[in-house]
């Protein structure tokens, strides 16, 4: 039987996870096994459940209990469901629940980078991507365009950030990802030991243009994408095996990193 709790106040400590904890507190860096993240919308929550994540609680407008969230709640009969009117919930979260349903979900241990590289042929390395929306969009493109795995450098934002999860449309639960503890030296060594050619994405005179047959001939290729503003550090570019660029027209110097990643993933996908 669903455990429904009707709210007349937002002061309950159990609701802190939805509004009163910082992203760092949600991650719980000192005890990661106790960390949580927020999944938003029935579709995203369903994908998280399918991937084995365990919900701590749900927060939703009452109409969704027998509506959009009914199938999800049937899978989690003992999990508390907090509900109230739209204005009350907005006062808690600070925004209208446009998708109607939130879930606080327990994090689980992530695989080691070596594990996700074993059977991969196309890998995206995200270096210092700090905008959660961009990260989520890159993950969605990677999943859609047959990238096998994603590696994140230590300066990336949390891929289970609420906005990153939402923008990814839950694909963060479908594509293997892991965090690198040392970059660029340690990460480069790891990729090379696994048999990967590492390509930096950057505009330079030495860059190989997408569409060059030399690129599609590489069996195991890891492509590195840099920060939203400055791109990749010169030291990182020099540590890569080659540099790849998207040819530009009309004097445009670059694309947003999320848009650029989709172009690169499509062109370098395995056939």
How would you summarize what this structure contains?
The chain is an alpha/beta fold. 32% of the residues lie in helices and 21% in strands.
Top keywords for this entry?
271 residues; alpha/beta; 5-stranded mixed beta sheet; 12 helices; 12 strands; elongated
- Which percent range describes the beta-strand content? 15-25%
Query: What about the largest sheet?
Result: 7 strands, parallel
Poorly predicted residue ranges? none
Helix content: 25-40%
Determine the number of helices (DSSP H or I, runs of at least 4 residues).
12
Summarize model confidence as the mean pLDDT: 90
Q: What are the SSEs and their pairings?
A:
Blueprint: E1 3-6, H1 16-19, H2 23-27, E2 36-40, H3 42-50, E3 54-61, H4 70-75, E4 80-84, H5 86-93, E5 101-106, H6 113-117, E6 122-126, H7 132-144, E7 149-152, H8 162-167, E8 177-179, H9 185-193, E9 197-201, E10 208-209, H10 213-216, E11 221-225, H11 234-239, E12 242-245, H12 257-268
What report would you give on this structure?
It is a single chain. This protein has 271 residues and is of the alpha/beta class. It is 32% helix and 21% strand. It has twelve helices and twelve strands. It has helices at residues 16-19, 23-27, 42-50, 70-75, 86-93, 113-117, 132-144, 162-167, 185-193, 213-216, 234-239, 257-268; strands at 3-6, 36-40, 54-61, 80-84, 101-106, 122-126, 149-152, 177-179, 197-201, 208-209, 221-225, 242-245. The strands form two sheets. A seven-stranded parallel sheet has the order 8-7-6-11-9-12-10. A five-stranded mixed sheet has the order 1-4-3-5-2. Strand 3 (54-61), helix 4 (70-75) and strand 4 (80-84) form a beta-alpha-beta unit. Helix 7 (132-144) packs parallel to helix 12 (257-268). The protein is elongated. The N and C termini lie far apart (48 Å). 39% of the residues are buried. The mean pLDDT is 90.
